[in-house]
Amino acid sequence: MTSPTNAALDPTMVRFARRVSHDLNNFSTVVRTYSELLLAELPAELPARADISEIQRAAEGMVAYLQRVTRFARASAMRRVRLPIDEAIADAVAEFRGIAPARTVAVPAVLDAAIEADPLWLRDVLGELLLNAHEAAPAGTPIALTVRIAEGRVALAVRDQGAGVQGDWAEMCEPFATTKNGVRGAGQGLALATSFALALGGTLTYHREGESTVVTLEVPAAK
What is the pLDDT of residue 174? Predict the structure, then answer.
């Protein structure tokens, strides 16, 4: 059974994300700036430096988190260029292998296919799908990428041998939804992938195929 994403992004959620990310970014900038000033003034041997360094790291993490929220809110305004699928896959897989070098990733043969999208967006979306598959799949099992081109659409699927999505797929594709308790910054990956797909007039779907989990990003091919 295939589980699709919602037909469109909730405009109320988009406006909320845009406004919240703007305001929280201002607060985190203040925390980060003053922690940097304190670290510059405190002696290296002072025990309090460790606590302030942790505050600074948390503020920097919040800035990175809010940047992703902002990207979600601005998906509809992403720039679009003709982008060969092969190049996007190569970039995303290379970055992923730097994170999880022990995980085998099978990639498709060279294909003459392209879409119109922002290269950084596509690389990040593919990276999120690979990372989700990596976290779900048992150690030692491969992840496979496949591409299908038909009727003016490009479908890129990420397959792993994990147990599948725990919970409602549509809810998991909403911002801030996560099953990773205690993990800072979780709950954005599938929301970003969903907003990317919908902005291009595509879909992000999930289904079980035998013992495998398959997440498919399908978008229009470049004309």
Answer: 67
What does the alpha-carbon distance between residue 51 and residue 54 come to, in Å, rounded to a whole number? Answer: 5
158: containing domain: 80-220
Q: pLDDT class for 17, splitting at 50, 70, 90? A: low
150: phi then psi, degrees, rounded to nearest 5 = -160, 140
- Both 56 and 93 in one domain: the answer is no
Please state the rounded mean pLDDT for residues 199-216.
90
* Same domain (yes/no): 70, 6: yes
Asked if 193 and 125 count as a contact pair (C-beta separation under 8 A), the reply is yes
Contact between residue 9 and residue 198 where contact means Cβ atoms under 8 Å apart: yes
**Beta strand spans in 45-108 (E):** 81-84, 105-106
Tens digits of residue pLDDT in 145-173:
999 998 999 999 999 998 877 777 677 76
Is there a single domain that holds both residue 115 and residue 206?
Answer: yes
Residues 6+ apart with CB under 8 A from 164: 136, 208, 213
- Burial class for 25, CB neighbours closer than 10 Å (0-12, 13-18, 19+): middle
Spell out a b/e string for 153-178, using b for 16 or more CB atoms within 10 Å of the CB, else e. ebbbbbbbbbeebeeebeebbbbebb
Give the residue from 75, 108, 124 where a domain finishes.
Answer: 75
